[in-house]
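Lay summary

Proteins are chains of building blocks that fold into shapes. Our project writes down both the chain and a compact code for its shape. Here are two examples, one after the other.
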Amino acid sequence: MRTSRVLLWTALGVGLAVIYFPLLVVLLNSFNADTTFGFPPTRFTLEWWSRATSNEGALNALWTSVEAGLAATAIALVLGTMAAFALQRYRFFGRNPVSLLIILPIALPGIVTGIALNNAFRTILGINLGLLTAIIAHATFCIVVVFNNVVARLRRMGGSLEEASMDLGATGFTTFRLVTFPMLRSALLAGGLLAFALSFDEIIVTTFTLGTGMETLPIWIYNNLFRPNQAPIVNVVAAVLIVVSTVPVYLAQKLSGDTASGGRL
């Protein structure tokens, strides 16, 4: 028993080190004064952070990522919630295949989704690629995150409180506003945070659906990764990206955990 416990803890420690040690190196290199990024760093500086805050390309890419993420999240919240209600509260022919079709985009390889959407936009619909097409592309997999969160919450909620509200004379809208939404809002917020983080980090689908000359932050990092004069700034931007990606996931997990244990937002 003791041997098994030691082996499990050792495996856990090795796994976490493999995942998080490279991220720690990126964070340290964002303060590394040595442009060759010798490790361990012998001297630290804030110069790269100062340059990053005035780098026009990085700032434009950041704004593009924020715009795409917020818009895709808004679309996902509306459509994902509607789909969750339709599939959880109603029984109809083809319900399970429809549920599979909604979840499928997040399981498909990104390059397949990107090529398919690129062909659809340019060949079938005749739409020029731009920020709008990237937002639509991001929404296709962000919907899945919101859908899964809302469906899970609806299953735990049941329908007894809503039925009681309706029996007491409340309209459907009043019941949703005073009963359903308060119990659902933490799941919506968690799903929205996860959807934004997923959109903010996406690079493969974005490459195929974003307009020429436009860059999101992950694409900007990739394009400048091997440019010697930009490498220190890339480390700073990557460090920011790590934080920006981690915070929504942490908050979403905390919200989901609080609600599952009976807490209220």
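And here is the second example, written the same way.
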Amino acid sequence: MTRLAQTAGLNDIQREILATVRDFVDKEIIPVATQLEHRDEYPTEIVEGLKELGLFGLMIPEEYGGLGESLLTYALCVEEIARGWMSVSGIINTHFIVAYMLKQHGTQEQKDTFLPRMALGVVRGAFSMSEPALGSDVSAISSKGVKDGDEYVLNGQKMWLTNGGTSTLVAVLCRSDEGHPEGTAPHKSMTTFLVEKEPGFGEVRPGLTIPGKIDKMGYKGVDTTELIMDDLRIPANRVLGGTTGRGFYQMMDGVEVGRVNVAARGCGVAQRAFELGVSYAQQRHTFGKPIAQHQAIQFKLAEMATKVEAAHAMMVNAARKKDSGERNDLEAGMAKYLASEYCKEVVEDAFRIHGGYGFSKEYEIERLYREAPMLLIGEGTAEIQKMIIGRRLLEEYRFQG
């Protein structure tokens, strides 16, 4: 049989891109990932390699210097990268969401200014929606942008920025009451602001502070930060799309493709966990034979492989639906929900197969065991996904009585 998670219907260019990425992952990421993760060290050389491969511009149109590839191609690349080290896929993902939002919603001037440099990885994107007291309730955003002449003055505190320190362009969601009278629905009075900054920590431009990296259980290496705006002034032409009040819809469009990305990450981590589990099961001997020959272990491997296949199929379906131009919030929500839950289960089964050695930092599965839980939360919890899925199902299957 072929290996797990194969994708039918790819063209020659897609297959070549994926083969190149997989080779890079096997040679440049897997051998160093655990060591870098334990040191919580940013993978500078890996990121430079991804820039040389053109992955920062994978979905950016060719007219702006990108490769102009589909969401499916991107998601399959993310799956491969996450198989090597999930943190690296996070670095790419937040950059990609900002580039996607610019491509879909930006003014021509904004596209011309940022997309060519983003395609090269010279400008690196970060995506800022969450706040310390926000959770899943986006309507509770309190950060605010107030018009002052030809500028906006931004104030507020944002949370959980991936690439917060290394990025140079942040898409920030704030309230903006200008032109939206009191009583306007919260989601109609939000605006996305494009904030340029210097990389690093501390005050990275007047009025904007990145305090430092948040110490996390897993998902290390990548810089996850807060963002504090204190009378931060930005020009009015840095409102995404040039019109206020559209930020919620722009962000949700970005999150929708982000959910496909998180599903792809779950698929990649689950694949790696299966690879580690099936390999160890053939090396470890008990009662005179490899543990892979014990029925209990074979049952685990069968369940793990089936979950890897199912999650991959749903992720591919969600990406293809988005590429077709159709609404895909149902498919993206299902894919994200299933892939993240199955990832957690496959990683735990691989951990159990390793026995006591799975608890040792010398074994790669220990890192995966700490990384998988982030996928249960990122781009919306399982409960949020189930709400989206449930509402969409009721739209499709409305009772006619």
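What can we say about the second shape? The two ends are 50 Å apart (CA to CA).
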